[in-house]
Amino acid sequence: MRKIALEEHFNGPGFEKYLSAVAGEFDPAVLAAVEKLLPEFDEKRLQVMDACDIEIAVLSQTAPGVQQETDTGRATKAACSVNDFLAAQIARHPKRYRGFACVALQDPVQAARELERCVKDLGFVGALVNGHTCGTYLDHPSFQPFWEKLMELQVPLYLHPGLLYDEPHMFSGRRELSGATWSWTCETATHALRLVFGGVFEKFPQAKVILGHMGETLPFELWRLDSRAQTTSAGRAMKQPPSEYIRKNIVVTTSGVCANGPLLCSLLELGEDSVMFSTDFPYEDALVAARFIEEAPISREQREKVCFRTAERLLRL
1 pLDDT band (50/70/90 cuts)? Predict the structure, then answer.
């Protein structure tokens, strides 16, 4: 079955210094293999896509990107440069690739302008942000111009894991829990919940946020989030239960989670129109991801929605 994949990474020129920040989270041999594939847009990447029946890959600058750059001018310039670079690669394979904009939220107004340029001039289908921006999360009031532009353009924001701002004591002495194994999931799920409880979706009701990795565990927690929110004054003051905002404003991808249980849970809890296929290439094996969704115990109609129909609708492909 043909597929559209939404969490497919690359690394642009000059971004090697940012990628080095996550080196400690990977075995050196694993990172070396990934680093060889990230800058490649032709034979190897397209061969993998063909083998997986991936018709279109939506490409995004790999984490941590510019979110950790403390110099605002440098971050803004780097984002613009890598977006131009990505647009040039898409132009070489226009039927196979689309792009998520890299945005420097150190300056939210300029980030909104860059998003508009990427969507209107470069043909990108949304933006991807790698976690917090120098310790500031997307529920902060300063990001209102960026949310307004997302709403105006009717494009989604992919909220991807990034580096933790600091290391909580609970991870101390257990380095194996850091990074993609667990700590990035905690950080990204919490970031998404900040949007829910911080009223972002009340202010911007048409906003769409994409979470990878089968929703960063949130589909599993919806009932409890509603139940426990009712025990706090802030939760009781919300116009809707947390689960309603998550179901309405958040969609998830299968990136990096190739297991039937989480897939069925996500479909049941979020709805059949809120789960989309992705592979997390080159950090995960795309062939494993493709085989998983082809063999998952779901109906053909559900499989079509996951593989391509929901992405076509959300990204207006």
Answer: very high
3-state secondary structure 262-315: HHHHHHHHHCCCCEECCCCCCCCCHHHHHHHHHHCCCCHHHHHHHHHHHHHHHH
Catalytic residue among 107, 139, 280, 285: 280
What's this model's pTM, rounded to 2 decimal places?
A: 0.97
Nearest to 66 by CA among 31, 114, 125, 116: 114
Rounded Cα gap, residues 177 and 140, in angstroms: 28
The total of other beta-carbon atoms located within 10 Å of residue 30's CB is: 11
Residue-range domain boundaries for the chain? 3-315
Could you tell me the pLDDT band of residue 277, with boundaries at 50, 70 and 90? very high
Active site residue 280: yes
Measure the CA–CA gap between 256 and 289, rounded to whole angstroms. Answer: 8
Residue 21 has pLDDT above 90, yes or no: no
Write out pLDDT tens, residues 33-72: 999 999 999 999 999 999 999 999 999 999 999 999 999 9
Rounded CA separation 264/283 (Å)? 23
CATH of the structural domain 3-315, one choice from 1.10.10.10, 3.10.150.10, 3.20.20.140, 1.25.10.10? 3.20.20.140
In this structure, the chain runs to a length of 317
Hey, how many other C-beta atoms are within 10 angstroms of the C-beta on 270? 22
The pLDDT tens digits for 279-308 are 999 999 999 999 999 999 999 999 999 999
Helix, strand or coil, per DSSP, at residue 59: strand
First to last CA, the chain: 17
Beta-carbon-side half-sphere exposure of residue 300 (alpha carbons within 13 Å)? 1
